[in-house]
Design goal:
The protein is built from one helix and two strands, in the order αββ. The protein has one helix spanning 4-27; strands spanning 33-39, 45-51. Strands 1-2 form a two-stranded antiparallel ribbon. The longest helix is centred in the N-terminal third of the chain and has 24 residues, at 4-27. The radius of gyration is 18 Å and the shape is flat.
Length: 72
């Protein structure tokens, strides 16, 4: 069976996703995942789940571009 090996692989990926989500939640406040707007076929937008890699409440632009970068 071709698909018998896929079950174990998907279990492993699922466990990895759960571990990363738990690590994000334990080390910072806010959600581990967020919905990022993406553009798909025929210019239809959709939400793609992504892991949060920045702290909640930080500026969306690079701080070196701000006038007073130390305030963030």
């Amino acid at each position: 069976m071709i698909f018998s090996g896929l079950s174990g692989g998907s279990d492993l990926v699922g466990a990895g996703v759960a571990l990363v989500a738990m690590a994000v939640r334990l080390t910072s406040k806010g959600p581990a995942l967020y919905g990022s707007d993406r553009v798909g076929w025929n210019n239809v937008t959709f939400k793609m789940p992504k892991f949060r890699s920045m702290r909640v409440g930080k500026p969306a632009v690079a701080t070196h571009l701000l006038v007073d970068a130390r305030s963030h």
